[in-house]
Description:
Blueprint: H1 3-19, H2 37-40, E1 54-56, E2 62-67, E3 79-87, E4 94-102, H3 111-118, E5 131-136, E6 156-166
Antiparallel strand pairs: 1-2, 2-5, 3-4, 3-6, 5-6
Amino acid sequence: MNTKVLLFVLTPIMSLLICTGCQRSEPDQTRETRIPAEQADTAPKADPPMPGAIIETSSGLKYQDLERGSGPRPMIGQSLQIYYTGRLKEGGEPFDSGVFNYNPIKDKTIRGWKLGILGDGEVEAMRIGGRRKLIIPPDLGYGSSETGPVPPQSTLIFEIELRKTIE
């Protein structure tokens, strides 16, 4: 067969094959959307939970924003000044309270604090000036360990205020 005839016959067929799916009405669910780190904070997000709502995450952590901060979110590696009060049950006597200069990379704290302050895929990171209640299940707290006045397998309730970053 002549090369010109072959190209004449195959060109429309190839065009049809290449454009198959060009007019799909549904978005391609297999493609991953990536947002550059410098734009991540400005990317559209789902509506924030209603003020005062208690949100439960798949990890078991529950949190409630008592006051949303208006300052920036902490950056990885920054030290944070946190005012906190820890209780064993709602309305119970505090077992610990004070001011903690917290560095998430250097300080070993319970996992529930790190998730509740810095966030993850489900929890939005706090902003400076924010106040949040964390209800931390035992596996994100002290687990089966007895720690001071905290008995093993305790659910912990912390009210925290993210005051400022420390240089």
